[in-house]
Sequence to fold (267 residues):
Amino acid sequence: PFLATDQEGGEVQRLKGPRFSTIPTALPQGKLSPATLRSRPTDWGRQLAAAGLTVNLAPVADIVPGPHATANQPIGRYDREYGHTPSVVASHVVAVMQGETAGGVDVTLKHFPGLGRATGNTDVTRHVTDPTSRHDPYLVPFQAGIDGGTPFVMVSSATYPKIDAAHPACFSTVVLQDMLRGGLGFGGVIISDSFHAKAVRFAAPATAAVRYFTAGGTMLLDTERPPLYAMERAVRVKAASSSSFAQLIRSDVLRVLRAKAIAGLLS
Fold:
């Protein structure tokens, strides 16, 4: 199986101790040259691989505007951004990707299409919006990471009024299929942010799972175990009653298997 963790740095470093480096937040990482930065994530990737991990749910490709960066609750408050401009974030995201991939783990760009200008934190707030538009320059780091070969992209749980005002990104066909697949050309695994987040808890777990896969998601994440059972049952029931939905799930399974084959996880 894929085994994943959040190993960004700073407060978002899940694995710590004698076998793991203390990773700085992304903001000081962004002050290094990309060439200098690239070598450090190689060590971080090797440490994760040695512990049996296969995926890091990082790096963050979100851009937070500079003047009031710490006011941004999900990213800027914790210095999770590599910088405040598309060019800086793009170059450093790619450097981290290349380093960790060389260290032996897959990486995950997040949180598409961006949380750098969000009105709140989706983990604890229901109605979070972000002004990112469909052809926003703040999408440049995501395009750079996709062009660089990221196998995973994590989709945000916020709502983007300039893209699809009616649905959070994780339930939006426009975001997942039209933008991410069609516009940016991503062919890998689209993974959700945790469905335990308050931004998406307005939907029952079973309903949320079916909506997510129908919109175009590939792999669903929930940091709480109990809802996953209801989600699995709902997906099985829907697939049994709808041939088109069953085909979506088969396509998702094949996409995950291709990612596992590339990662060397299939024997």
User: Anything to note?
Assistant: The chain has a mean pLDDT of 97. The two ends are 12 Å apart (CA to CA). The longest helix spans residues 243-262.
